[in-house]
């Protein structure tokens, strides 16, 4: 009988908490709604394909062999067994807070030689890296070198010694062994 009244008490407490929680939802203010909207889940950065820079595209010349093109651009992402004379280089990046980017470059071969290529305008390597760096700059960078006065504190031969009655006692020249010899 006692156990039955305890379970009823817990059930009553749980129901009361649920009712209080639901009534609290009705009094959500605009400020708390804005705070909840600011909390966003983490989205994984997705990078797929081959990044091709404008410098790499400028190095391509009609008449180059497939091997020369592969040395400049790397292996193409898409190869089609039905279109052996076409290589597609596709690059896609999706990041939180940044517009998704997609670029495409298609190369056409005649036999073993590059005939022509077409695609999107590619950014330079420097421009592309600048778009990736989304960190906020926090003002002046602190000085990372110690001044001469700061270095004088650490002159060789001087070690920090404890204050107190044994402050002037010399440090032991050698330390006793960690294990006793038997």
Automatic annotation (TrEMBL):
<comment type="function">
    <text>Part of the outer membrane protein assembly complex, which is involved in assembly and insertion of beta-barrel proteins into the outer membrane.</text>
</comment>
<keyword id="KW-0472">Membrane</keyword>
<protein>
    <recommendedName>
        <fullName>Outer membrane protein assembly factor BamE</fullName>
    </recommendedName>
</protein>
<feature type="signal peptide">
    <location>
        <begin position="1"/>
        <end position="24"/>
    </location>
</feature>
<keyword id="KW-0564">Palmitate</keyword>
<dbReference type="InterPro" id="IPR026592">
    <property type="entry name" value="BamE"/>
</dbReference>
<comment type="subunit">
    <text>Part of the Bam complex.</text>
</comment>
<keyword id="KW-0732">Signal</keyword>
<keyword id="KW-0998">Cell outer membrane</keyword>
<dbReference type="InterPro" id="IPR037873">
    <property type="entry name" value="BamE-like"/>
</dbReference>
<keyword id="KW-0449">Lipoprotein</keyword>
<comment type="similarity">
    <text>Belongs to the BamE family.</text>
</comment>
<feature type="domain" description="Outer membrane protein assembly factor BamE">
    <location>
        <begin position="49"/>
        <end position="118"/>
    </location>
</feature>
<dbReference type="Pfam" id="PF04355">
    <property type="entry name" value="BamE"/>
</dbReference>
<dbReference type="InterPro" id="IPR007450">
    <property type="entry name" value="BamE_dom"/>
</dbReference>
<feature type="region of interest" description="Disordered">
    <location>
        <begin position="139"/>
        <end position="182"/>
    </location>
</feature>
